[in-house]
Recover the amino acids of this structure.
């Protein structure tokens, strides 16, 4: 059986007509830059994230960058974040000449260990970027507490967490800014690069709008230096067309995660399961922890099961950040996670028999027979 890590074609088959109609409308209008489709998408994402403002931008990476720019963060400033994240989180900080200051992760959730943040705050600290990794919100009460005490700005990297909730609050609505990515493999994916910033602060929203269009206001009058960070109208129309399906897709991801949890618990295999500590984990990834990770991944590949390592090298050990001077061992939980984590297929269209097969294969790797006999399995393939 073939089980890809993500099957975007399966999803596209269910919404093809809607997506094609959305694209066709933009083509008929010939309105490609900002305009009504971007406005509508912004309103929809603001509402979905329980925020009063949303500003469409060119990517999740640019969402992070433009928030830091809006705070005039640059050389001499420090920004606290986690080393166990996608490059963009840290890249945005360093591109502006500011210094990323790392805080290790909580090994249970893989999110920033908020209890360690206060000890890293200096007179130069300006902001904190918690990352809601794999679709679960970081410990935002603790993050906001430190931020409030020390007068810091909080930029939520919610690229993997649209619709996730923490104590009844939506990802992106808790800090001063929330950043979303519509990269195709995110839970709400465009058909190219796209992103969004959400905020409840009208002044910040206005500055972000200005910055994404070269800092011009009005047109051709530049008080500040921005860039071209605009959300494309075709991508906005596609995101808007897909948004009404997002809650169903999230429910399917959660069902798949629960199914894995149950199958793995019944099998009693020597691996760590995802810890769900918030009300709404949206499972952009279902990540297990296992000591022979690379061997398991190679074995699953031979079985036709797609997996991925998010992420094999923590940011403090990346070549490009060597100038920060961190040695191996500096952030032990991030380093251990980089060696032990493996993301399994959890996409909404994953069938019960596919999930069963994945667990059986992992059981086989550990020399254990798991679940249904193979006759049931071949029957289930037809599902
Ligand atoms: C995907 C991602 C980003 C960047 O988003 P892009 O749209 O690909 O630029 C930033 N941070 C995290 C944690 C991500 O997963």
């Amino acid at each position: 059986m073939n089980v890809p890590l993500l099957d975007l074609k399966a999803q596209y088959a269910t919404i093809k007509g809607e997506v094609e109609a959305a694209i066709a409308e933009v083509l008929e209008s010939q309105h490609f830059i900002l305009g009504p489709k971007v406005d509508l998408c912004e309103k929809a994402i603001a509402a979905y994230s329980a925020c009063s403002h949303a500003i469409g931008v060119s990517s999740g990476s640019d969402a992070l960058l433009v928030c830091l720019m809006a705070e005039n963060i640059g050389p001499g400033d420090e920004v606290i974040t986690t080393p166990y994240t996608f490059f963009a989180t840290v890249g945005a900080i360093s591109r502006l000449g500011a210094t990323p200051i790392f805080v290790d992760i909580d090994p249970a959730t893989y999110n920033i260990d908020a209890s360690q943040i206060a000890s890293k705050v200096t007179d130069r600290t300006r902001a904190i970027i918690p990352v809601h990794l794999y679709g679960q919100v970081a410990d935002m009460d603790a993050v906001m507490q430190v931020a409030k005490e020390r007068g810091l700005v909080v930029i939520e990297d919610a690229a993997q967490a649209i619709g996730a909730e923490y104590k009844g609050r939506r990802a992106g609505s808790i800090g001063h800014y929330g950043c979303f990515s519509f990269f195709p493999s995110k839970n709400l994916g465009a058909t190219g690069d796209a992103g969004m910033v959400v905020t409840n602060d009208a002044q910040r929203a206005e500055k972000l709008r200005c910055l994404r269009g070269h800092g011009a206001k009005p047109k051709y009058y530049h008080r500040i230096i921005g860039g071209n960070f605009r959300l494309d109208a075709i991508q906005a129309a596609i995101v808007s067309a897909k948004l009404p399906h997002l809650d169903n897709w999230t429910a399917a991801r959660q069902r798949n995660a629960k199914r894995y949890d149950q199958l793995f618990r019944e099998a009693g295999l020597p691996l760590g399961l995802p810890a769900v500590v918030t009300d709404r984990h949206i499972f952009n990834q279902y990540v297990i922890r296992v000591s022979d990770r690379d061997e398991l991944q190679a074995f699953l590949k031979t079985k036709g099961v797609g997996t991925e390592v998010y992420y094999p090298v923590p940011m403090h050990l990346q070549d490009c950040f060597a100038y920060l001077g961190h040695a191996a061992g500096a952030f032990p939980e991030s380093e251990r996670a980089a060696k032990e984590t493996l993301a399994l297929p959890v996409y909404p269209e994953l069938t019960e028999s596919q999930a069963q097969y994945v667990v059986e294969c992992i059981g086989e790797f550990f020399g254990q027979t798991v679940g249904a006999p193979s006759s049931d399995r071949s029957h289930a393939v037809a599902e």
